[in-house]
Amino acid sequence: MYFPGLEGVVVKETKICYIDLENSKIYYRGYDLEELARLSTFEEVTYLLWLGRLPGRRELEEFKARLAAHRLPPPHIATLAKSAPPSAEPIDVLRTAVSAMAWGEDLSDKSPEAELQRGLKITAAMPYVVAAFDRARRGQEPVHPAEAGSHAEYFLWALRGERPSPREARAMDVMLIIYAEHSMNNSAFTAVTVASTLADMYAAVTAAVASLKGPLHGGANVDAAKMIEEIGDVKKVEGWVDEQLAKGRRIPGFGHRLYKKGPDPRLRVLRELAKGLAAERGDFRWVEIAERLEDYVTAKLAAKGIYPNTDLYAAVIFRYLGLPVDVNLPTFAISRVAGWVAHVLEYRQANRLIRPTEKYVGPLGLRYTPIDARG
Ligand code: ACO
Predict the structure, then answer these.
(1) Radius of gyration in angstroms for the set of CA atoms belonging to the chain, rounded to a whole number
(2) Can you give the CATH number for the domain in which 243 is found?
(3) Contact 228, 315 (CB under 8 A)
(4) Annotated catalytic residue: which of 134, 173, 223, 311?
(5) Which residue's CA lies nearest to atom 27 of ligand 1?
(6) Is the beta carbon of 219 within 6 A of some atom in ligand 1?
(7) What is the residue-level pLDDT of the chain in tens, covering all 375 positions?
(8) Catalytic residue flag (residue 134)
(9) 37: exposed, middle or buried (C-beta count within 10 Å: 0-12, 13-18, 19+)?
(10) Name one GO biological process term (predicted).
């Protein structure tokens, strides 16, 4: 049997995430994602994804304190983030930093507790790395706002150097919840594939960040941001889309391997979030472009099973939050690391080396010709 793109292939049993295509719902550990986005926090959702249940008050406080204690990464990581060339892509800096976090640590203990602790250290340090690099390339010193409350507030504060408004911090928090997990996507599969060799959590997450980079996966949130920027005016949406399609190009922020019969369920939350930020700023330009894109592209391409995905509105929300366009992508990683770690921990409970096979379609029986006789 041959499954191009592994479409429809089941690689593991899971209790982490369920996507109910029929009813347009996503569940993390049995909880409706829309309810989590409304009522929960990224820290609580991360605890839920990793440990399988909602924490009690004290457990959550302890978990938040553990994360906060690791926000400032070891000196060699802080130096790496600061000294990467300004022309580097932030996602590449983050990938290298995650890999370098393994340095100097005894990695022989592969127990769930040890791997969870590594996942926690990576999760905690990612915002600082991304923010420190972004500031350094603009000639600014890194900021470590120890008094920041949530992970989301810390990230925005470290990035901008000043405290975000509660509404902005909450918008980032919701984005981190929404992006945190999405079943057996390419980067989660990559993490699990690496973990199945019994390589450590740093190796698995480094590989997952690499997978996220591609424009068919997480990189689409950068392309979507460039698209809305390039369009710039709601009146230009139709012309821009027609031109792209005429050139045979794909529209970023549209299409999904799973959602062929309707839009991504997460869009409901993100559309509202984007509108709320637009209203707060009195600037509806970007949300209007996204809504027009949504209507126009869907009308053109729904027959092919193409609907908007999360990256369309993520681009709008990140724009309202003032993120540099290329920081959209590592922001996705800052969130999705929660899902990667959960999948690695779950897979290891019944680990089996991932080693698919392939169908050979090349020639056989060729005779070796010495190089002098090849012309
Ligand atoms: N714009 C225009 N046409 C599209 C788009 C799009 N965004 N996406 C798919 N199509 C077309 C394809 O060209 C193809 O047309 P054809 O049958 O005439 O050749 C048809 O729709 C089916 O496309 P597939 O490639 O088979 O769909 P697949 O399920 O493999 O791809 C993918 C899903 C990769 C996400 C694709 O829709 C895409 O490239 N989208 C743009 C990038 C993007 O937004 N990625 C983010 C995905 S979500 C995430 O990872 C966070």
Answers:
(1) 22
(2) 1.10.230.10
(3) yes
(4) 311
(5) 257
(6) no
(7) 899 999 989 999 999 999 999 999 999 999 999 999 999 999 999 999 999 999 999 999 999 999 999 999 999 999 999 999 999 999 999 999 999 999 999 999 999 999 999 999 999 999 999 999 999 999 999 999 999 999 999 999 999 999 999 999 999 999 999 999 999 999 999 999 999 999 999 999 999 999 999 999 999 999 999 999 999 999 999 999 999 999 999 999 999 999 999 989 999 999 999 999 999 999 999 999 999 999 999 999 999 999 999 999 999 999 999 999 999 999 999 999 999 999 999 999 999 999 999 999 999 999 999 999 998
(8) no
(9) buried
(10) carbohydrate metabolic process
- Residue 260: which residues within 8 A CB-CB, separation 6 or more? 305, 307
- Annotated catalytic, 311? yes
Domain count, the chain: 2
In a domain, 231, yes or no: yes
Do residues 194 and 236 both lie within one domain?
no
Among the listed residues 151, 217, 256, 343, the single catalytic one is 256
Distance of CA 305 to CAs 26, 260, 298, 330, Å?
19, 4, 9, 28
Q: What is the pTM of this model?
A: 0.95
HSE of 90, CA atoms in CB hemisphere, 13 A: 28
Q: Whose CA is nearest to atom 36 of ligand 1?
A: 255
Host domain of residue 56: 10-214+327-350
Beta carbon of 191 within 6 Å of any ligand 1 atom: no
Q: Which two tokens stand for residue 148?
A: 């920041």
